[in-house]
Amino acid sequence: MDHNKNQKAGRFRYLCLLGMITALLAGPGLWIHLTPDQMYSGEERRMLAERPKATVKSVLRGKFQKKYETYLREQFPGRAQMVTLRTKLLRLLGERDANGVYFGKDDYLLERYQTQDFDWKHVRKNIRQTAAFLETYPNAKVMFVPAKSSVLSNRLPKFAHSEAESRFFELAEQKIPEKQRISVTDLLKSHNNEYIYYRTDHHWTTLGAYYAYKVWAESMGFAPVAIDQFTVEPVSRSFFGTTYAKVRTGGKADVISLYQHTDGPEFALDYNMGEFQSDSFYDRSKLEGDDPYSVFFGGNQALVDIRVLPEQKNGKTLLLIKDSFGNCFAPFAANHYARTIVVDLRQVNIPIDKLMRVYPADDILILYNSTQFMKDRELDKLK
């Protein structure tokens, strides 16, 4: 009798264990399928993968399976907490990097870029398209902003390096004429002990943008506005950026500062062809959101038309074609033109030559971070 009871108890415990294992394995999957997909991760500052659609072609080629694996991974409940736990465990084990991020000196988190991270056929295509645009418009110049890990090599862990960017600059120099290239790498490296890149974000700080502005202004024959002519206003002391979002640990809160030209002109800004107007380069309401860096222009706008007040009918116009690194650069450059047109190709739906029929420019500057330029899929609009 006791033997039968023990057998039943054993089977019950086995079934309970089996049920728990089944729940652990199936539970997250059921959760993902029964709850609405999360489109955006505020903790990671990026869009998440959407549920892919299966077709015979995508399944046979394996594309559906890969996309579905990514979808499950990114929609997994508690993913951000798991990223934090994994990163902390790796650091305890003595790892110097995790999820493409180096744990650097002085609380810096630095992006790790490797050659295999890039589609070099596409990189060459982007360079060719840019070179063709520069050939068509001799009044245009290009500035590639080097990655933080390249400039702040003094803060990288031992034996860490970034060979991908070096290869990119070699390719760019082969195709783009020297007279149309504005190099800021050496200048930024000479200031690498200063706060020119955020500790927890891939962007340069406003100070880093100022140093690059000086190089650009001098190349254009302008006298740069001296740094002591700006009032520096810290507007956030608790910024944790995109690099931190990849590892969810380490680093130290960053400070976002705005540079206000003390004796500078007033400006009128028209956003996205009349969507709304402002008298400021900054949207301070963004400081309370999950991306305080969007304080510059309120984020990546398709088109911003900046005019000096009072308006100058016969003044020059600058066309600034940029990625997010240009958002804190534009307020410096606008001091030298009656009108500055700021364009983000990722947000506009027409080629740049058609846009220039509406906004003819005397000078053109293409400003991109090198690694973002390598991956950009919108540069075919440079036509």
Question: Reading side by side through the largest sheet, how are the strands ordered?
Answer: 7-6-15-13-14-12-10-11
Strand content: 15-25%
As a whole number of angstroms, the C-alpha radius of gyration is: 25 Å
Instruction: Count the DSSP helices.
Output: 13
Question: Helices and strands: which structural class?
Answer: alpha/beta
Mean pLDDT: 86
Describe this structure in words.
By secondary structure, the protein is α/β, with parallel strands linked by helices. Helix content is 37%, strand content 19%. The chain has helices at residues 2-34, 56-60, 63-75, 79-92, 120-136, 148-151, 163-175, 185-189, 206-219, 242-247, 330-333, 352-358, 370-375, and strands spanning 40-41, 46-47, 97-98, 101-103, 109-111, 140-145, 181-182, 230-239, 254-261, 266-271, 276-278, 303-309, 317-322, 339-343, 363-369. Strands 7-6-15-13-14-12-10-11 form an 8-stranded mixed beta sheet. The protein has a 3-stranded antiparallel beta sheet with strand order 3-4-5. α5 (120-136) packs parallel to α7 (163-175).
Overview features:
383 residues, alpha/beta, eight-stranded mixed β-sheet, three-stranded antiparallel β-sheet, 13 helices, globular
